[in-house]
C-alpha cells in the first residue's frame, strides 16, 4: 500500500499569512494527488485534484504543486474561513490512502 | 442538485452487523465510482472501500473479509454491509462520489456522514 505522510501535523498562522503544507508519498504517484479541507463536524471538501488543478468554486488563494513523491498545498493569504484540517489523498492506486491531516489553527 | 445522504448508523455490539445506505440524487450511482470513507472520533480520514462503475470492488486491509460494498441501481443507492464489527470500527462513515480525470478518480461529492458506534 502507498503511505502518505503530511507535515506539519499542525500549524498556527494569522489571517493574511502564507501557509504551506507538504505531503510525501511512500512511492511515486505521478501527479495523482488530491487535497481536501475539513471543518469540524463537516464532510471533507475537494480543493485540488491531479496535484495542481483547482476544483470548481475553490478560491484561487489555494494552489497545489508537486509530482512523484513530494507535494505541497499553499494558501497564499489565509482567510478566517480557512482554519480547518487539510488532508492529502493519493489516487494512483485502487487502494486509496489519505495523509494523517494538518490542522491550521489561529495564532 | 447532486446530493448524497447516508443512513443506517447506530449502536451495535462487538461481533454484530450493520448495513449503511447512501442514497444519491442528481446523478446515477451505477455510472460512477463510489467510495466509503470513515473517521474515528478525533482521528483522520480512512478510506474503506470503492466500487467501480463496472462493478469491481476494493477494500482497505482493515475491513477486507468483513465489509461488503454494493449498490442497488433501481434505488440509486450505495450500501456498506459491515459484519464482525469491532470497537475500532467506531467512526463517522461518509460515502463519496469519485469523479474521473485522465482515469484517476477524486472524491468530489460527499454525504454528511452516519455514525457507527461499536460497544457493549
Q: Average pLDDT of chain A, to the nearest integer?
A: 97
Succession of helices and strands of chain A: EEEEEEEEEEE
- First CA to last CA of chain B: what distance? 40 Å
Proportion of residues in extended strands of chain A: over 45%
- Report the structural category of chain B: mainly beta
Overall outline of chain B: globular
Helix amount of chain B: under 10%
Largest sheet of chain A: 7 strands, mixed
Q: What ranges of chain A have pLDDT less than 50 throughout 5 or more consecutive residues?
A: none
Global Rg of chain B: 14 Å
Query: Which structural class do you get from the secondary structure elements of chain A?
Result: mainly beta
Q: How many individual β-strands of chain B? A: 11
Structure description:
The complex is a heterodimer of chains A (107) and B (120). Chain A has 107 residues and is mainly β. Helices cover 0% and strands 50% of the residues of chain A. In chain A, strands 2, 4, 5, 6, 9, 10 and 11 form a seven-stranded mixed sheet that branches. In chain A, strand 9 and strand 10 form a beta hairpin. The mean pLDDT of chain A is 97. Chain B has 120 residues and is mainly beta. In chain B, the strands form two sheets. In chain B, strands 2, 4, 5, 6, 9, 10 and 11 form a seven-stranded mixed sheet that branches. Chain B starts with a strand and ends with a strand. Chain A binds chain B through residues 1, 32, 34, 36, 38, 42-46, 49-50, 53, 55, 85, 87, 89, 91-92, 94-101, and chain B through 35, 37, 44-47, 50, 58, 60-61, 94, 99, 101-102, 104-108, 110-113.
Amino acid at each position: 500500500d502507498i503511505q502518505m505522510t503530511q507535515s506539519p501535523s499542525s500549524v498556527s498562522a494569522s489571517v493574511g499569512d502564507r501557509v504551506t503544507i507538504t505531503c510525501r508519498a511512500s512511492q511515486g504517484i505521478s501527479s495523482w494527488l488530491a487535497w481536501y479541507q475539513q471543518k469540524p463536524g463537516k464532510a471533507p471538501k475537494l480543493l485540488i485534484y491531479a496535484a495542481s488543478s483547482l476544483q470548481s468554486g475553490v478560491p484561487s488563494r489555494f494552489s497545489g504543486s508537486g509530482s512523484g513523491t513530494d507535494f505541497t498545498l499553499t494558501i497564499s493569504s489565509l482567510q478566517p474561513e480557512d482554519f480547518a484540517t487539510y488532508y492529502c489523498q493519493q489516487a494512483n492506486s485502487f487502494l486509496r490512502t489519505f495523509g494523517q491531516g494538518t490542522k491550521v489553527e489561529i495564532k | 442538485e447532486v446530493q448524497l445522504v447516508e443512513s443506517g448508523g447506530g449502536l451495535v455490539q462487538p461481533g454484530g452487523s450493520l448495513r449503511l445506505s447512501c442514497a444519491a440524487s442528481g446523478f446515477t450511482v451505477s455510472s460512477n465510482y463510489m467510495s466509503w470513507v470513515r473517521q474515528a472520533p478525533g482521528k483522520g480520514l480512512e478510506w474503506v472501500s470503492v466500487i467501480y462503475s463496472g462493478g469491481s470492488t476494493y477494500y482497505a486491509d482493515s475491513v477486507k473479509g468483513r465489509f461488503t460494498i454494493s449498490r442497488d441501481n433501481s434505488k440509486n443507492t450505495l450500501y456498506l454491509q459491515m459484519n464482525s464489527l469491532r470497537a475500532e470500527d467506531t467512526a463517522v462513515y461518509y460515502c463519496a462520489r469519485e469523479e474521473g480525470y485522465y482515469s484517476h478518480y477524486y472524491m468530489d461529492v460527499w454525504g454528511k456522514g452516519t455514525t457507527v458506534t461499536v460497544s457493549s
